[in-house]
Write a structure and sequence with these properties.
- The structure is a single chain.
- The chain is an alpha/beta fold and 230 residues long.
- The chain has one domain: TIM Barrel.
- 31% of the residues lie in helices and 17% in strands.
- Strands 1-8-7-6-5-4-3-2 form an eight-stranded parallel β-sheet.
- β3, α3 and β4 form a beta-alpha-beta unit.
- α1 packs across α8 and α6 packs parallel to α8.
- The protein is globular.
Length: 230
C-alpha cells in the first residue's frame, strides 16, 4: 500500500523540492505540507541522463526522518539500478524511472516493488503512451513529464493533455504530472485524468503553503466527478 494505491478518485499535490532552498529543505517541505501537500517529489539528476546535477540517496536519507510526508523519488539518472538499493534504504516510498535510462525494465520495476515501495514509469514528452503497455502489471503509477526533464520553471507542453487521456484509456493506474504545473495548468491535466500534481517553481515562487493550496484546489476544481478528498 502507499500514496498511489490508496488514492481512489482523489486529486493530490506535492512540491518538487528542486525549486526549494536546499539549505532549509525540511522547513521548505513543511511549508508545502501546511498547504495540503501529501507527498514530497524528490528529483535526482546525474549530469548524464539530464544535464543538471542535484541530490541523491544521502539527502533522501536525511530528509525522510524530518518529514511526515512520503518521499517520492523521480530518478533522472543513467543506470538507476545502481541507486535504487540506496534509495530504498533511505526510506523513500515511491520510485519512478525513465525507460530510456533502463535496459532491463522488468527487473528494475521488480526490484523497486520487492523493496516494499511503489514503482512508477516516467514518460518524456515524446515517449509514446504505448511504451507502458507491457510494464502495466509491474507499475503502481505513471509519471507524465509535461516538460523536458532536467530543470524547473519550464513552459508546460500542451500535448501532454492528450497523452494523459490516451494513458487513461489504456489503464487504470494513477497518473502523476510533472512540469509547468500551476493554477492554470492543474485543472487541464486533472480534467484529462491526472490525479497527482507535482509543482516546483509555482509553489516556491511565493508562500509555499498558499501556493501549494491554490494549485491543489485548482486541480480539484478541474476534474469532473473527481473527488477532492479531505
Ligand atoms: C524537472 C523535474 C520537475 C521540476 C518541475 O525535470 O522533474 O520535478 O522540479 O518544476 P516546475 O514545476 O517548475 O516545472
Ligand atoms: Zn520530477
Amino acid at each position: 500500500m502507499g500514496l498511489f494505491s490508496e488514492l481512489g478518485g482523489r486529486v493530490v499535490g506535492g512540491p518538487s523540492i528542486l525549486a526549494a532552498n536546499f539549505a532549509y529543505l525540511a522547513d521548505e517541505v513543511e511549508k508545502a505540507e501546511e498547504g495540503g501537500a501529501e507527498f514530497v517529489h524528490f528529483d535526482a539528476m546525474d549530469n548524464q541522463f539530464v544535464s543538471n546535477l542535484t541530490i541523491g540517496p544521502m539527502v533522501a536519507a536525511s530528509l525522510v526522518p524530518e518529514t511526515s510526508l512520503p518521499v517520492d523519488a523521480h530518478l533522472m539518472v543513467q543506470n538507476p539500478d545502481n541507486l535504487i538499493p540506496a534509495f530504498l534504504e533511505a526510506g523513500v516510498k515511491s520510485i519512478s524511472v525513465q525507460p530510456e535510462a533502463v535496459v532491463h525494465l522488468h527487473r528494475t520495476l521488480t526490484t523497486i516493488r520487492d523493496g516494499g515501495v511503489e514503482a512508477g514509469l516516467t514518460l518524456n514528452p515524446t515517449t509514446p503512451p504505448e511504451s507502458i503497455e507491457w510494464a502495466i502489471p509491474h507499475l503502481d503509477f505513471i509519471l507524465v513529464m509535461s516538460v523536458n526533464p532536467g530543470f524547473g520553471g519550464q513552459k508546460f507542453i500542451p500535448e501532454t493533455i492528450e497523452k494523459i487521456r490516451r494513458i487513461k484509456e489504456m489503464c487504470d493506474l494513477p497518473i502523476q504530472v510533472d512540469g509547468g504545473i500551476k493554477t492554470e495548468t492543474a485543472p487541464l491535466v486533472v480534467k484529462a485524468g491526472a490525479q497527482v500534481l507535482v509543482a516546483g517553481s509555482a509553489v516556491y515562487k511565493g508562500d509555499p503553503a498558499v501556493e501549494m493550496r491554490r494549485i491543489i484546489e485548482a486541480g480539484r476544481s478541474g476534474g469532473p466527478g473527481v473527488g477532492g478528498g479531505e
